[in-house]
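Office hours follow-up: a student asked to see two folded examples consecutively, so here they are.
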Amino acid sequence: MGSVDVTTAVTDGIVVRGWALDWTSADPVEVAVVLDGKATALTAMASRPRADVKDVYPGFDDRRGFEITVPAVRGPHKVCVTARGRTLGCGDVTVTDGNFADVSPASAAAVPSRWMADTGITRGFPTDWLFSPSIVLNRAQAATFLWRLMGSPSGPAACGWNDVAPDSTLAVASCWARTSMVISGVNGDPGRFDPQGPVTRAQIAGMLWRTAGQPGVAGRSRFTDVGDNAWFADAAAWADVHGISTGVAGTNRFDPGGPVTRGQMATFLWRLAGTDAAWAVDRPASAVRN
């Protein structure tokens, strides 16, 4: 018999506390963890001091408590503890500080996406628990990420975009992007922001470069598919020199027309925030990664 008394969310996991005993034995009982309906390899001996248990069951000593830290990604979880084939109890807990559930710890986006969440640059998509690293970045997301990187500066909610409502969550970020000359209109239409439009690698290089203050770079990039006179040549050279973009698939190709995923954007932002020499403007603490 026993009980799960406490389930508490911590960074990257859940702490579970409780007690257990076996009427037929004076020895400590081994307990095991079930997370979200699946048995785990986590076990512990219920041998921690629990004077309150001894008070209720004076025939046993006080070493009947257990405490287990269960690794868990962001999101809601149900954690249960079993002993001798019986469930002692369960608890529902939401982990808010940890890796996204859909980002493998071994992936290139793992550290950057976690950094973005920890610094408030992203809140996840489509929920707070998922990052969606393989989804193509759109212009609304790009503007919002860059705006938050720069400290979410206050500003107008209306600035001439005819497809961004002043009361939308995108309004201030999109106006910051416009007035800072980070993002301009699409297809020659200065009033069209195109929030859901996909972002290419050439476009994101330009956005990042302009956010950093358009630093000058001597020469051109090593990318074989970026012409010297391309509109994004300076941005691509800057991204190359400072290691913001290292090309695609281990080659010297930049793939300017290729789409940018959310995972790739996380990596670009993480690299930019960690590269002092890539900046030509003063930046807020939110854009500095130690």
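And the second, which I mentioned at the end of office hours:
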Amino acid sequence: MMPARLAGARGQGNGSGEKGPFEYAGKHAYVGSVTVFQIQTKGPDPVYVIVILAMIAGFLALRLYSVLGKRTGHEQEPALRPAEDRAKVTIVQPRPMAEMGADSVRLADGLIAPGGESGVRSLIAADRSFDVPQFVDGAKAAYKMVLEAFWRGDRRELEWLCDTDVLASFEEAIAAREAEGHALDNRLVRIEKAQIVDASVNGRIAEVSLRFEADIAAVTRDKDGNVIAGSLTDAVSTNDIWTFTRDLRSTDPNWKLSETDEAA
């Protein structure tokens, strides 16, 4: 028996109206080099049918497991992971204002004089963002910047560091020094101590006073650069009380120097 060619190719009909090879697939069909013969029987054996169906089901189950039962690397992580693999989450509960103030003052041990603790607590109650260590660090930086700006006669820098009254005092001293032809060649050697001694809130205006203990090498020169007073090798100890002010409702976070005085 000659195997028929694959149906659908050109020239398979004989043009005489007779049936082509595709219509004879009931007897045999040719695919590639494999010939499949259909054996005519009275009816399929039920036992063979059950066995064949079981084999097909087993084959499909095996294929499904091979596809679905393996990770391909593109799966999403499960929403929940084992407890030991999950990061621990700490829920921070709001604390009473008094407790927050006490903690902030306690953490600032050494930065607040005994007489200033009550005022600092009041300030923290009015402004929860107030941080004592951060404020003291900023005040020390401002102390250095104000002194250096005053020594070199930089009025513009003093303008944004000081309020109107302090700025006027500095500008008057700078003008007098320039009129005499003198120049300051000072150096801030170190800040030995910076401590809050008082704090208060009046309406929306907050004030914080600090005591600065520092060593400064002070030299005054004439217009020719000659030293007429002081020495760069001998530092002088200074003790000052500086007060900084800020409007708590302002969007500007900077504090301005509002008062200077000698410490007792």
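Two things to take away from it. The two ends are 126 Å apart (CA to CA). The chain has two domains: 21-68, 97-262.
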